[in-house]
Amino acid sequence: MRRLRARILLAAGSIRARPLESVLMAATFAVVFCAATTALGLLRTGRREIDRALAKLGQDVGQAVDAPSAGRRRRPRPSLLEEGDAARIAQALGGRAAMATVALGAVSAAGRRSSAIVVATDPEWREVAGVELAAGRFFERSERGACLLDDILARDLFGSAEKALGGRVRLERAGAAEEFTVRGVVSDPIFERARFRNLDPLASARPILLRVLDGICAYIPRSGIDPGNGHSLCLARHPASLAPEEAVRRAREALGERGEKLFAWARRTWIERLEKMAAYGEIFSSAVWTIVLALALALVATIALLAVSGRAAEIGIRRAEGATRADVCAQILLEGLAVGGGGALLGVAASPAVGAWLSRNLFFRMSLRAEDVLLVFGGGLLGVALAYLAPALRAARLEPVEALREL
Amino acid sequence: MRPRARAPLCVREAALEVARRPVRSLLVLQAIILGSAAGIFPRAIYRGSREAALTRSGEYASDRVIVGAADGEGPVLPSWEAIDELLRERPEISAAAGIAEREIEGSSAFLLGADRRDLDARRLVLRAGRNFSEDEISSGAPVCILEAQAAKRLFPSGDPLEKTLELPGSEPLRVIGVLRERPRSVLRSDELGLDKDHALGLFAQAVFASLGVAPADLAWLNADGNVLVPWRRLGAAPRWLVLRIAPERVRTAIPDLQRHFALRGLDVVVYANVALQIFTAPELEALVSVSRDIFLLCLFMGVVVVANVALLSVRERRREIAIRRAEGATTADIVLQFLVESGVFCTAGAAIGVPLGILLAWARVSLDPSVLVRWAIPWRDVAATFAATFAGGLAAGIAPAWRAARLDPVEVFSRA
Description:
The complex is a heterodimer of chains A (407) and B (416).
Chain A: H1 2-17, H2 19-56, E1 61-65, H3 85-93, E2 96-109, E3 112-121, H4 124-129, E4 133-136, E5 146-150, H5 151-158, H6 161-164, E6 168-173, E7 176-186, E8 217-221, E9 231-237, H7 244-254, H8 257-261, E10 263-266, H9 267-309, H10 312-320, H11 325-358, H12 370-397, H13 400-404
Parallel strand pairs in A: 3-8, 5-7
Antiparallel strand pairs in A: 1-9, 1-10, 2-3, 2-6, 2-9, 4-7, 5-8, 6-7
Helix pairs in contact in A: 1-11, 2-9, 2-11, 2-12, 3-7, 9-12, 11-12
Chain B: H1 7-20, H2 22-55, H3 57-60, E1 64-69, H4 82-89, E2 93-103, E3 110-114, H5 118-121, E4 126-129, H6 134-139, E5 143-146, H7 148-154, E6 164-165, E7 173-179, H8 184-188, H9 201-210, E8 227-230, E9 240-245, H10 247-263, E10 268-272, H11 274-279, H12 282-316, H13 318-327, H14 331-367, H15 379-396, H16 398-405, H17 409-415
Parallel strand pairs in B: 3-8, 5-7
Antiparallel strand pairs in B: 1-9, 1-10, 2-3, 2-9, 4-7, 5-8, 6-7
Helix pairs in contact in B: 1-2, 1-14, 2-12, 2-14, 2-15, 12-14, 12-15, 12-16, 13-17, 14-15, 14-16
C-alpha cells in the first residue's frame, strides 16, 4: 500500500512538472472520449427514436382494403366491404375494428389550402388506430360538422394545433364541398416528421390507401361528405399475442368468399421489415464507430510512445536512484490513467452539449444513458491502459546507462 | 542565408515529415483526414446532383412528371380535351401530353395514341418529316410517327418517310415523321428516375415496394421502338399524362396536381424523379450542414492532437532549433517556423481527406441506381476546408512554437 501511494505521488509530481504536455494530453483524451460518447449517444438515441415511432404505428394493427395497393381492378365496382364487416372482423380477431372510407381531397382554412387524405370513419377509429391527441377530442358518432386534423395539416392551415381547435375548414372532393369545425388534432407518431416531410419523394406515388399514415389526414364522421369513389378499408386491432399472419387469415375467413378477394395486411410485418433495416444500419454504424475508436486508441498509443521516449534521461535517473522496472512501468501507467481519466471526465461531461449542437439539424435530440456513459468510460480507460502499456514496458526496459547518455 | 528566407523550407519540411513517417502522420492526422472527407463527401454529391437536376434536365428527364390513375388501369382523365383545362389551371406545366397505349402484336413495342403536344412534352426531336397536324389528330387520320428503333426495325433498308406501315391488328399507316434516338440516360430512367440497367435497380425497387410504391405499368416509357398515332385511332381516353415542369418546381407542383385531380373526383398517382425531389428540398441543406459540423469537430480534435504531437517533437528537435538560433534566427523566426510547419502539416491532412471525400462520393454515386445522383467537386467547400485546416494548424502550432522559442541554445549545446 505504501508502495502504491509512493507511485501515485510520483506520477502526480511528474504530471505537475510538465503542465503544458499534461494539459494537451488530457485535452487529446477529452476530445477522443467526447467524440466516442457523442457518436454512441447519437447512434443509440436515433435507434431508440426509430423504435419508438415504429411502435406507435401500431404493431397490433392490420387493415383490410378492397383496392389492392398494386393490383388491377376494373372500375366501377361496388366495394367488397360491407356494413357489419368491422364487427365480424373484430369478433374473429378478439379485438376491435373500425370501418373507414378514404379519399384524396382538398382542405382550406384561413386563406390557406392543402391536400388532405379524407378519412370518413367512426369514433372507434381512435382506439383501433391508437390515436393520441395533441389537442381537443375525437368526434362523437352522430356529431355532424365535426372533424379532426393530423398535426402536420393543422399546422399547415392554422399555424399550430392549439390555434386549429375550433377553426373552420372546408373540405372539397369531386365537386362537393362541406364545412367542418375542428374538434381535435391528432399527434404525429413519427417524431419530427413535419420538419422533413419534403424529403418523402414517394408520397405522391403511393396509392391513397397506403397514405393513411402520411400525417395529412382529415377525419370526419362517416355520415359526413360523400367522397365519391373513395376506397373502403377496415382497420382492426388484434391482441398482441396473435401472430400477424394468423390475424390476416382470421380476418379473411370472417368475410367468407369476399375475404379472398380483399387485400389484407398486418402492420407488424411491415414494421418488422423497417426495424430490420434500422438494425442493419445500426450494425454498420457501430462497426464504423468501433474501427474509428480503434484508430483513435492507436493514435493515443503513438502519442504516449512519443511522450515516453522523450523522457529517457528522467527514467534513467530514477533507475539509477533505485527504482525497479515495476516502479517505472507503474509510474507511466498511473500517469496515463490519471491524464486519461481526467480527459475522459471532461470529454464525457462535454458530450451532451456537443450532441445537442450536432443533433439540432436532425430529427431527434441526443440523450445519453448511464449504460452508454459507463461503456465509453470503462472501455475507454481500459483502452488507455492498453495504449500506455507498450510505452510503459519500453520505458521499464531502458537500461540506466543508456538512458543517462541522453543527458 | 537570411533565416527569414527559410520560410518556404518550413513548407517543404512539413511535407517531408509526412513522407518520412507516413504511418505516424496518418495516425496523427486521422481526425483531420476523416473530418475533411466527411465534410466534402455529401457536398460533392449534393452539388453534382443538383447541377444535373437543374441544368441538364433533358439528359436526365428531371423535368418529367407522369400522372396515372391510382388503380393502374383506368384513364387518368375522362377526355383528351381535359388536358387543356389542366394546362390552363396549372401554369407551372410547360407542356403536357396524354398517352394511350396498345401493345403491338408479336413485339415488345407499343402503339401510342398521342396528340400534337407529345413531342414537346416528352422532349422528342424529329429527325425527318413532321408532327401531326390538328386535322390529323381530330380526324384520327391513318398516319404515324416512328421512334428511332421502330424506324430501324420496321424499315431496315431505307428511309421510312411517306412509306406505308402495316402492323398486325391495325389498318395501314403512312409514316409522316421519324424521331431521333433519345439519350441513353433518358431511355434508362424509369418513372421514378431509377436506372433500369443498374445492378442495384432491383434492390431499390424492392425498397420502394416495401414503402408502398409498386412499379407502374410503363413499359412504353423506356422503349425507343414505339409507333405514335393520333389518339382517336385507339379510341381510348388518355391513360397517362406526361408533363414537363421546370425541375426546381416539380416538388411543389406535385401536391397541387393531386389536389387538381382530387377536386374532380379522380384518384391519381404522380411519378417524378425521386432524387430530384430530395435534392431540391430546402430541408436537405440543413441535413447536409451536419457534415460541416462533423468537419469542425474533427478539425478541433485534429488540432489538439497535432498540438500535442508537435509539442512533444520540440524536444526531439532541440538541437536543430539551437543551431538555427546560433545562425541568427530570431524568436519570431522560430515561432513562424513552427506555426507554418503545423499549418502545412494539418493542410496535408486535408490534402488526403478531400480526395478521399471525392472518392467516397464517386463510390456512392456508382452504387446509387438513381440516374440523377451525380458528383461534382464543390470548389468553394474544398477551398474552405483547406483554409480552415491551415488556420487550425496555425492554432495547433502556438504551444510548440512558444516552447521552441524559449529554448536556450547555450543550454542545449552544453548538454551535447
